[in-house]
Amino acid sequence: MTDTLFTPLTLRETEFRNRVMLSPMCQYSAEDGLANDWHRVHLGARAAGGAGVVMTEATGVEPRGRITPNCLGIWSDEHAEAIEPIVEFVRSQGATPGIQLAHAGRKASHRPPAEGSGPIPADEADGWETVSATDEPYPHANVDEGDLADTRRLDGEGVDEVIDAFATAAERAHDIGFEVAEVHAAHGYLLHQFCSPVTNDREDEYGGSFENRTRLLREVVEAVREVWPDGKPVFVRISATDWLPDRDSWDVDDSVRLAPVLAEAGADLIDVSGGGIHPDQAIPNAGPGYQVPYAEAIREGTDVPVAAVGGITEPTHADALVRNERADLVALGREMLRHPHWPLEAAHELGADVEWPVQYRRGRYD
Ligand SMILES: Cc1cc2nc3c(=O)[nH]c(=O)nc-3n(C[C@H](O)[C@H](O)[C@H](O)COP(=O)(O)O)c2cc1C
């Protein structure tokens, strides 16, 4: 039988009630990395709104891995305790809670978008030293070269610390009930900085060949898989392309090559996004489903399950992606900021029979 947007999906021993995922979206609302009422309402509303998987925003595995001082973190027990009731609420609504484990590398120590998004120098009160595959800072188009924040190239010991930080964060996440761990290796953040030849200028075993550049990501996925229970899935979010065809860069062929390597390391699904490594990127067309062809290429070339994301807003479009076997999961970002109950409304439009929260039953269309 053909799968639809509302057919449950089972990965390992974990069943998602449908194929809609709340895409990870930074809220820039945490203090010291701690979840608060904003996160409870944001994630809780999408769980009550019928999403299959509710993914947290990029959540720093260590303090210097946060994009901004207001990003979430999970580097201590206090952080785990702050988000635990939210995880419980998400589960109580029948949604599967996922955590995006993240390290921003040289794109850390930045101001939130509402404050201009620029780099915060390490010597300013809110700033800190960033680390990367390279010691070249992110070349912001609108910041003078001399004002770019320094970054420090990780040495072998530093690399091991990053791997440990991901694994420890995953252990904490499991302990408080998260059911999916997503390793963030997209959007020009640390793991992407190692994978892409645009940012990786290393000469050690983490630089040079495809195998060397992807080594850290592989080791992180293996370390997460080691502490993550067998029955729970691991996702990896990648940028399928750097959108830099004018130079030696990461492209879709690399992603098709990477997916089975990640599956071998313990990943169960590739969440396929794009870009973020360099401001020169040329996004070809940000219209409806603009990144779907990358997800499709990976799924077709490898049989590894994929999530598609990017400009997906229409229920019939999302449903067709699953029916036509172009994607296993469909992630919605901005559309679910506009419509927290998008899955419930989509089910109505598509004629699927789904449970509404008991409190909202009088709002059902039937
Ligand atoms: C406000 C906002 C914050 C975002 N934060 C993250 C993030 O924390 N991690 C991530 O992988 N992607 C992040 N993204 C990207 C989204 O997850 C999604 O991939 C992108 O918005 C394209 O999907 P859409 O067209 O459905 O919004 C963010 C996007 C937005 C709009």
TrEMBL record:
<dbReference type="GO" id="GO:0050661">
    <property type="term" value="F:NADP binding"/>
</dbReference>
<feature type="domain" description="NADH:flavin oxidoreductase/NADH oxidase N-terminal">
    <location>
        <begin position="5"/>
        <end position="350"/>
    </location>
</feature>
<dbReference type="GO" id="GO:0003959">
    <property type="term" value="F:NADPH dehydrogenase activity"/>
</dbReference>
<keyword id="KW-0521">NADP</keyword>
<keyword id="KW-0288">FMN</keyword>
<protein>
    <submittedName>
        <fullName>2,4-dienoyl-CoA reductase-like NADH-dependent reductase (Old Yellow Enzyme family)</fullName>
    </submittedName>
</protein>
<keyword id="KW-0285">Flavoprotein</keyword>
<dbReference type="InterPro" id="IPR044152">
    <property type="entry name" value="YqjM-like"/>
</dbReference>
<dbReference type="Pfam" id="PF00724">
    <property type="entry name" value="Oxidored_FMN"/>
</dbReference>
<keyword id="KW-0560">Oxidoreductase</keyword>
<dbReference type="GO" id="GO:0010181">
    <property type="term" value="F:FMN binding"/>
</dbReference>
<dbReference type="InterPro" id="IPR001155">
    <property type="entry name" value="OxRdtase_FMN_N"/>
</dbReference>
<dbReference type="InterPro" id="IPR013785">
    <property type="entry name" value="Aldolase_TIM"/>
</dbReference>
